[in-house]
Amino acid sequence: MAEKTLFEKICDREIPTDIVHEDDLCVCFKDISPQAPVHFLVIPRKPVARVAEAENSDQALLGHLLLTASKVAKDQGFAENGFRLVINNGPDGGEAVPHLHVHLLAGRQLEWPPG
Predict the structure, then answer these.
(1) In the chain, is it the N or the C terminus that has fewer CB atoms within a 10 Å radius of its CB?
(2) Residue 101 annotated among the catalytic residues of the structure
(3) pTM score
(4) Domain with 11 in it
């Protein structure tokens, strides 16, 4: 059996974190190294390494992650001013943990281009 990723351990409550939303498919929590005043991660409970490795059977899960990010933005009161969603894929894409996750960034004017 492969060793659990950091995010699998968070989902299993083996590592404490500041959870802002959870349901049967995903967990959303505050990033420990925020890149904006508001920086949450939305992660699937299912261990999908990255979006490029998602399968057709993951389509509903991928949609759920985005809808959850939108719900959290509304619930936390920053949806109206705007927010950014980022999904990193692989080392050149900035991926630090090999477990699919959506960054939800808000709380300031975000620059473009982002990288």
Answers:
(1) N
(2) yes
(3) 0.94
(4) 6-106
